[in-house]
Amino acid sequence: METKLETVRTLQDLLAEGDELWIVCHNNPDPDCLASALALGHIAADVGIDEQHILYCGAISHQQNRAFVNLLEIDLRPFDPDDVVDRPEGSLLALVDHSVPGANNEIPAGTPVDVVIDHHEAEGIRARFVDHREAIGATSTILTEYLDALDVEFEPLLATALLFAIRRETLGFLRGATRAEYAAGGTLHEHADLNLLRQLANPSVSGATIDAIADAIDNRTVRGSVLVSYVGRTTERDALPQAADYLASLEGVETTVVFGIVEDTVQLSGRSTDARVHIGDVLRETFADVGSAGGHREMAGGEIPLGLFADQVDEDDQLVDIVERIILGRLVNALNLADDGDDGRDADAAG
């Protein structure tokens, strides 16, 4: 089996062939993706690539993600497909925390990729260098292993970024964490800026996020250990996973799905601690015919174009009602909720 040092040396040899490095983050990048991009850029700089570009698709709306970018002074630019397709000869394209062009990103399908480093479930990965480890809890763990194998001195900002990303991705080492995450955390801790780490962990929350979470609480439907809710329209996409995390703490609840309308899409966020439920598979199978969805056994998300519903009505209020009814109905069927005991709320009436 190839050692970590041999793996990162292989990566270095590939990077040394390039003059520029274009690192593309996935849609609406989270700290794990952003920290991994920073770390890969650090490795590239070490072999002489000074021209680097970190691109992001979607938006950075979660308050922790915005604080992450601002406090760590990450140089980002919005993704433009032309930048990738028409990039200079001799430049390299890398994906971190995602792996396939056109899946959770806006890269044209079939675009050749040089580097893929990821821990999410995926098929059909093609790149000159691939480190795809689904058993690992965070992509930042893999990058930390690379840097440690190279025996580099961790800069405080980079160490802080990686440590926060690992903690955030694993919910404080409680979700999907392996021995590798604990080892990486131990490596990073002595180099991290703990005051900055505390700032990142406690950012201010927008009023729109609080409103969305409140709506999710009010609109919840519970059947046995499953909770489904919706927030209507919101400007804060990342309020949905925050609402899902919060509602997952409700006593007796093991599986939670929250959905809402964000701009021109329906966004979904799911959580599950039920060993019988792979929430990524549930969302993927339920919405494969109308959008894209999937993820891990314990954490997943999805996106459906709103245009599929918009043609049916003229008024926005009607649109919201139709989205709620159809999405809730699909989830009720997928999670076998129709005949379960409930807490007084009628899922079928709500849908």
UniProtKB/TrEMBL annotation:
Keywords: Plasmid. GO terms for molecular function: nucleic acid binding. Gene3D superfamilies: 3.10.310.30, inorganic pyrophosphatase (n-terminal core) (3.90.1640.10). The keyword Hydrolase does not apply. Coiled coil: none annotated. Residues 224-314 form the DHHA1 domain. Pfam families: DHH, DHHA1. Residues 22-166 form the DDH domain. InterPro entries: DDH_dom, DHH_sf, DHHA1_dom, Oligoribo/pAp-PDE_c-di-AMP_PDE. PANTHER family: BIFUNCTIONAL OLIGORIBONUCLEASE AND PAP PHOSPHATASE NRNA. This is Bifunctional oligoribonuclease/PAP phosphatase NrnA.
